[in-house]
Amino acid sequence: TIHNETRAFEHHYGRKPTGNDPVFFNPYVSGVQPLAGECLNLYLDELARRTGLTPARIYAHHKLYRQIRNHYDPRLWSEALSEYESLSRTYKKM
User: Fold this and answer.
1) φ, ψ (nearest 5 deg) of residue 34
2) Which of 12, 45, 70, 93 is most buried as measured by Cβ atoms within 10 A of its Cβ?
3) What angle in degrees, to the nearest 10, is found between the helix axes of 37-50 and 55-70?
4) Where are the domains of the chain?
5) Using CA of residue 82, residue 88, residue 92, residue 94, what is the dihedral sign?
6) Residue 60's CB: how many other CB atoms inside 10 A?
7) Please, what is the angle between helix 74-93 and helix 55-70, to 10°?
8) Are 82 and 58 in contact (CB under 8 A)?
9) Sign of torsion over alpha carbons 13, 17, 18, 24
10) pLDDT digits (tens, 9 = 90+) for 15-60
11) pTM, entire model
12) d(CA 82, CA 31)
């Protein structure tokens, strides 16, 4: 994936990225700008799916991102995975 992003950067800007260039860039603005906010989240979710990360793990990551960033608690991660499975079963029944 990083290799693909590097190739996309080279194709778009006509040069190799330097250490200050973002890995995930926004090709729709002038100059080199990183993807940000919801665009970045959607892009990373798609990359996670393509690499085989389960929807439960993606959900748990979103639910606990701030907590994980500051203090990882494995119990909360397990609870978020279980919550996803419960929600998933509920929606499949509808």
Assistant:
1) -75, 155
2) 45
3) 130
4) 1-53, 54-94
5) positive
6) 21
7) 150
8) no
9) positive
10) 999 888 888 888 888 889 888 877 888 888 888 899 999 999 888 8
11) 0.49
12) 43
- Kindly state the tokens that stand for 20: 């200050």
> Strand pairing partners for 25?
34
Place of tokens 């960033």: 69
- Can you give the three-state secondary structure of the chain, one letter per residue? CHHHHHHHHHHHHCCCCCCCCCCCECCCCCCCCECCHHHHHHHHHHHHHHCCCCHHHHHHHHHHHHHHHHCCCHHHHHHHHHHHHHHHHHHHHC
Q: Which residues, 6 or more positions from 47, have their beta carbon under 8 angstroms from its beta carbon?
A: 1
